[in-house]
Amino acid sequence: MSLDITFLGTGSAYPSPARGASALVLRREGQCWLFDCGEGTQTQLMRSHLRAARITKIFITHLHGDHFFGLPGLLCTLSLQSNPEPSKPPVDIYGPLGLRSFLWRSLELSHSQLLFPYTVHELVPTRDQCPAEEFKDFSGLDGDEAPGRGPPGRVVHLDPGEDSYLLVEDEQLVVRAFRLFHRVPSFGFVLQEKPRPGRLNVQKLKDLG
């Protein structure tokens, strides 16, 4: 399994002409996984060797604007560059509780219709991830939306035994989210490659004693 990392932005607060806001792409087996999507991310993608159309998963660490304000625009650009494919798998988006409502309302208010499906998997934070006065409960945000209109997706709770959130698992790797302390609830993402059994030439070992 080959992994390749490209930094698209490492700035904070806002993008500058020479430095984008937070965004990083992990390229794996022909797919691109995007971690954070600050303003200007799609411009940085155009300057890179990467193809935005290959983005299949997006992970948002926390809901500060410099980490996710570029997301609605990026999704719209991807839609403009794609053809309707009924069988196309959805783009999976992972992030803190509240991200689903933000995306749905941004696209609804701007009359944006995506030509591909997307799902939003929300991580439910715990109150000890930020100062008590900064914690906001976003669990009721989706209550006034018409059923079935927002994007589908899971609500992921902390697994107390693992002290983490299981997000992705396939034959090669596992992706988990871990709680971080910040001014707003934040998450770090860990990609762990599964052990691969080695191969031994038994006859050669015997010949060597």
From TrEMBL:
Show the Pfam families listed in the entry: Anti-Pycsar_Apyc1
Alphabetically list the UniProt keywords: Endonuclease, Hydrolase, Metal-binding, Nuclease, tRNA processing, Zinc
Organism domain of life: Eukaryota
User: Mind telling me which SUPFAM superfamilies this protein's record contains?
Assistant: Metallo-hydrolase/oxidoreductase (SSF56281)
Listed cofactors: Zn(2+)
* InterPro entries named in the record: RibonucZ/Hydroxyglut_hydro, RNase_Z/BN
GO terms for MF: 3'-tRNA processing endoribonuclease activity; metal ion binding
**What cellular component terms from Gene Ontology apply here?**
nucleus
Its subunit composition reads: Homodimer.
Q: What is this protein called?
A: RNZ1 protein
Taxonomy, top ranks, is: Eukaryota, Metazoa, Chordata, Craniata, Vertebrata
